[in-house]
Amino acid sequence: MAEFKRVVITRNGQTLMAKLMSGTGTVEFTKISVSGTTYTDTQLEALTSLSGIKQTAPITNVARNNNVSVTVEGAISNEDLTVGYYMQTIGLYAKDPDAGEILYAVTTASVAGYMPPFNNRTPSGAQFKLTTTVGNAENVTLQIDPSAVATIGDVNRLETKLNDLESYVGYSEKGVLGLEADFENNKFTRIGDAVGRTPGASFDSFNMYGGRRRVNLADNGTVNAVFGDANYIEDGSNGQVMVEQPAFYYKVVPLKTQQVADGYGQNLVKARYYISDQPRAGFKLHPAFKDNTGKTRQKVYVSAYESSIFDSSDSKYLKLDEQIADFTVDKLSSIANAKPASGVTQQLTRENARKLANNRGQGWKQQTLATSSMSQLLFIIEYATFNSQGALGEGFTYDPNDDMTSAKAKNTGSTQTLGNKSGSVEVDGVIFPTYRGEENLWGNIFSFVDGFTLEGKTVHNGWYALGDYRENGIDGSYKPLGFTIAKENGYIKYFGYSEDADFAFIPGATNGGANSALPVSDHLSQNNTYSGFMVARFSGAWGAVAGAGLFLWDLGSDFTYRFRSVGARLVYAP
User: How far, CA to CA in Å, does 346 sit from each of 315, 338, 382, 446?
Assistant: First the structure.
């Protein structure tokens, strides 16, 4: 968020103020201009105009505070902005009865806020409240530009459209749950209706939490049973074991950003994350509930377990990771008591995992960037931390008997008795975590993530898609993340940010070689010098030790990559 210093009255402003104090003049404030020019403090009094003006706002309100000061308000939108800029200086203009329009007062940014260009979808904006001395407030004309009223209406309508003020002040209304994440100071604070709540039952009154449940899901999307029903079973005979997630809305408010080093775009240094199970002004439907055509949905189903494979020719589940998949007909699965499928010898690439998921029928796919971020966002707001291992358990991250050739992932289903709850279960000294029905979201085995493609060539750009997934390219429905992904391995320091991809938790900066895992506690591995496009792997596997977690990314593999520690997870989007 932009932060500005005290308001300095210019010499022309001081002259006008002297007239007000003597009773020989009146003042009418005319406009607020925003400049991209940086001025020193010593320059301000002598300014008669601003250079590099990027936008100008009409006055929307003038209020007397006392006998000597007033507060002047104005607002800008980026709807006509084609090039973004940093808001370095704000100037308040007024009408002098003798000299005409003058630059009355100026304030400069201590932390410059970024005004992005319009993305043709969601507008951004800023509202200004400038409190300034006038000497004699009785001689201030409380008049506002009629065109401002016609264009902006009233402040409530402006805030609804531009979606700024309440975001920064903080939502207090019921049903808006939030987390303020101060990555710079490693401080995470519940805000909104999350204040005073603890993980678990106290969040269940909100549908995105309490409505989340394990189900048996048929290939045609029919819910055959829900956890607790007499006919609910997790062996795949009554459908895939999936977690039904109701739709919700979200908002990310950047409070402090920082230019991405060695690249472009912004990092979130401090931000507020909000969610609501009801649509609200300025909130967006989470992209897990949309596709590239604009279709929206009320629910999405994510895999309760890491995926095994159903052998269509023999009509049986491959529960031992048999390495005999036929990618033309076999099906990606989510059942208990099965060893997750891997790529020891079979060609379980991301593309082939996608084929196995698609083989279940319309709406079936593998884990995506959007569904990954969905669970990440729900987790941080409920637990007020990014340290998933600290909150729910380490997961299977170490096997002392690893032979370095075979797949060592443990069987699924250790958390069957927990059902829809979060927690962990210890089996033979291994901790298996589950987050509201999703077992082993970290540890045990990596999973491919679809709808997320990276380009190396030292530029380290990323693209995301909500459908029409493909390999080795970024055409079709793929859109740029809008920032450079971190180019140094290490624990995550900041997440990159753009308005388009504000839902994604993709690292824009790491701690590099520093020994601290804070503030996120998860690691980034990357290969930005690779000559082509790459796939994303998520969350870590056995042998990862501390290198596993809900925010861990391994972004260094090409599209032909398969390995014994990499599998997939299933998704159904009606």
Answer: 19, 17, 39, 16
Separation CA 478–CA 416 (nearest Å):
37
pLDDT in tens, 371-408: 999 999 999 999 999 999 999 999 999 898 899 999 99
Rounded CA gap, 381 and 274, in Å?
8
Note whether 558 and 533 are within 8 A (CB): yes
Task: Quick: pLDDT tens for 16-41.
Answer: 877 776 666 677 889 999 999 999 98
Q: Classify the C-alpha dihedral 527-533-536-537 as positive or negative.
A: negative
Q: Which of 8-17, 88-97, 226-235, 417-426 has the lowest mean pLDDT?
A: 8-17
Query: What separation in angstroms does the CA of 188 have from each of 227, 280, 369, 547?
Result: 33, 24, 24, 22
Question: Is pLDDT larger for residue 274 or for residue 151?
Answer: 274
Token pair listed for 303: 């895999």
Q: With beta carbons less than 8 A apart as the criterion, state whether 2 and 97 touch.
A: no
The model's confidence at residue 282, banded by pLDDT at 50, 70 and 90, is confident
Q: In the numeric block, which tokens belong to residue 543?
A: 């042998």
Nearest residue to 181 (alpha-carbon basis) of 393, 424, 379, 330: 379
**CB-based contacts of 148, cutoff 8 Å, min separation 6:** 57, 58, 59, 60, 74
Residue showing tokens 């603890």: 198
CA distance 5 to 341: 58
**How far is residue 59's CA from residue 140's CA, in Å, rounded to a whole number?**
14
Confidence class of residue 139 from pLDDT cuts 50, 70 and 90? low
Q: What is the pTM of this model?
A: 0.74
Structural contact between residues 313 and 212, judged by C-beta atoms closer than 8 angstroms? no
> Left (φ > 0), alpha (ψ -120 to 50) or beta: where does 265 sit?
left
